[in-house]
Amino acid sequence: MTEPAIRLQAVSRRFGALQAVRDVTLDVMPGERRAVLGPNGAGKTTLFNTICGDYPPTGGSIALFGTDITGLRPHQRTRLGIGRTYQTSLLFNGLTVLENLFIAVRGLRPGRFSFLRPGRGDEGVARARELADRMRLSHLLAAEVLNLSHGQRRQLEVGMALAGDPRVLMLDEPAAGLSPGDRPELLRLLRELPRSLTLILIEHDMDIALSATDVVSVMKDGVVVVEAPADRIEDHPVVQSIYLGSGH
Ligand SMILES: Nc1ncnc2c1ncn2[C@@H]1O[C@H](COP(=O)(O)OP(=O)(O)OP(=O)(O)O)[C@@H](O)[C@H]1O
Predict the structure, then answer these.
(1) Structurally, what CATH architecture does the domain formed by 1-81+166-248 represent?
(2) What residue stretches are annotated with the ABC transporter domain (predicted)?
(3) What ipTM goes with this model?
């Protein structure tokens, strides 16, 4: 039987008295595209953080392709194949697109970058260029990040999350703040990701979420209240009651 890419069993996360995620059990199969929806404060980012290890669960277990990763640190999970983006950009504004991708490829911290600037023929540079190409940013290799549009920054963030060749890619609100004109490009990029990659995304934009994914999990008050195919979610009574008038 195929192991799920991600298996959560009764995962919980507390912050003091606040139960941000409560007994979440779900499987995401290899190659699946999964959206996590829900109103503000539902626990979506906290659930992401339990999977990536930024805030490990306070209860339950997490497995990646059958390997228990519950107690691992974030960098160990990255090494085992989890890549992610954050709601808040982690790009280095004063550096170029190529330099940002190079840093991600080499797994560097910016402080060490000055010692290790990319040289010609460096394998890391070739890989950084390849990622730029996949993210349709090849024409902007020498552009400083602070001069990029919001949409281009989002594309770069996805490219950086792909640098470690993850098996599971987790995107936290990839469409947040994008202009309507930037959305089709993001959607195209998401759809072009190789099917070998498992994709999990948090998204408030229903159109993007439902167009880019196969299955949707809806969270409310730390609990997954609905799990359904993306083409059947909009009419679901629970979803309607959550989203009608919620401003999303
Ligand atoms: N580090 C933290 N310390 C304390 N409480 C936290 C922390 N992170 C999240 N929370 C709380 O956990 C709950 C869930 O927050 P979370 O950010 O996971 O929700 P969300 O569904 O991602 O919301 P949004 O859509 O607004 O990003 C909220 O009540 C939030 O205030």
Answers:
(1) 3-Layer(aba) Sandwich (3.40)
(2) 6-246
(3) 0.96
